[in-house]
Specification:
alpha/beta, eight-stranded mixed β-sheet, four-stranded mixed β-sheet, about 45% helix
Length: about 350
């Protein structure tokens, strides 16, 4: 029997995942903005990945809606909207889902599953993480531009759909406690504002030492705050997060030699935050650097670097499109840290 999946948030990640599920025989309904819905209605889906895989999905194999249509028929709900839109997205299906329907947050940040649980108390809200980057280049083309998998909070209800995800080429890595994974992914996502401010593709940005030094500053501060709060992030990279902070500072030639796979990213890939700024949308900075600032305030640990990055992104959101060289951004962040130290 076919399972119906409601994807709340037909953005790059939501369409890539939902498209693969549709190709594997699930009944998928995408709910999203008119711009993307029009694109995939006309062109269908061409889903490609970093390793050369390619999957075609014709428009007759998925449904499209601007608002959730018949959510009571959904067997699974995937929430892939930006974190700022979580509450509004799930309120649109509140009181309409069958009790016990699994609702999975596949979003950045730490607390989205809690928001879902509060608004949908009769559903089974689960936290999840998408560990890869997806690029939408138009005409129905969505490309997985980096390595990574799908992580999910383990629960017996996952048994209902785990096989379907595996058949779709998206095996779920189940975790009894997803929080360490969420905090570790947050550390990686602290590069998003740096990439957005650089104006460069991810591969170019990460290949330049000054930008990596900015990321090292940001992550080092975040790790110090987490340590004070007794939070231990999982290890998602070949080396522990504490060591990665130091390795980010090595010369470019050494970094390329040791961490060449880190730079194995589509040449045009940018962070989702860079895409948001380009489209004039509100970013997720409050759910990335903002999480570190809030945690720092809670435990009494200063966070000048993440606070300054938040301020710079807010300025960019207001329409200031000035781009930062690596050296200029590093000076901004070191200056902010020094001001607090004084």
């Amino acid at each position: 029997m076919s399972q119906r999946v409601l994807v709340l948030g037909a953005g790059s990640v939501g369409v890539f995942i939902g498209g693969h599920l549709a190709a594997a025989g699930m009944e998928v309904i995408f709910v999203g903005r008119q711009r993307i819905l029009d694109d995939i209605a006309e062109h269908g889906l061409r889903l490609t990945d970093l390793d050369g895989g390619s999957t075609e999905v014709t428009p007759d194999r998925f449904g499209l809606a601007l608002e959730p249509d018949e959510p009571e028929l959904a067997d699974l709900v995937l929430v892939t909207v930006k974190s700022a839109d979580t509450a509004a997205a799930v309120r649109a299906v509140a009181g309409r889902l069958r009790p016990g329907t699994p609702v999975v947050s596949l979003q950045n940040g730490i607390g989205n599953a809690s928001v879902i649980r509060e608004i949908l108390p009769t559903s089974i809200a689960l936290a999840g993480m998408v560990m890869f980057n997806v690029v939408h280049s138009g005409r129905g083309c969505f490309h997985r531009a980096s390595d990574g998998d799908l992580a999910i909070q383990d629960d017996p209800v996952v048994d209902r759909f785990a096989d379907r995800f595996r058949a779709a080429g998206l095996p779920l890595r189940r975790h009894r406690d997803l929080r360490p994974v969420q905090w570790a992914k947050l550390l990686l996502n602290l590069n998003n504002p740096i990439n957005a401010l650089s104006g460069r593709p991810l591969r170019e940005e990460l290949a330049e030492r000054d930008y990596r030094r900015c990321l090292a500053l940001t992550q080092s501060e975040a790790l110090a705050v987490m340590n004070t709060a007794r939070i231990r992030p999982a290890q998602l990279t070949p080396v522990p997060p504490e060591l990665m902070v130091h390795l980010l500072r090595v010369p470019d030639a050494v970094f390329r030699r040791v961490f060449g796979r880190v730079l194995a990213i589509d040449p045009l890939a940018r962070s989702s935050m860079a895409d948001d700024l380009a489209l004039g949308r509100r970013t997720e900075i409050a759910w990335l650097c903002g999480e570190i600032v809030r945690l720092g305030d809670m435990v009494g640990h200063p966070t000048p670097v993440n606070r300054r990055l938040t301020e710079l992104i807010r300025i960019a959101e207001s329409g200031d499109t000035a781009r930062f060289t690596g050296s200029r951004l590093f000076a901004e962040l070191t200056g902010a840290a020094a001001a607090v130290a004084d």
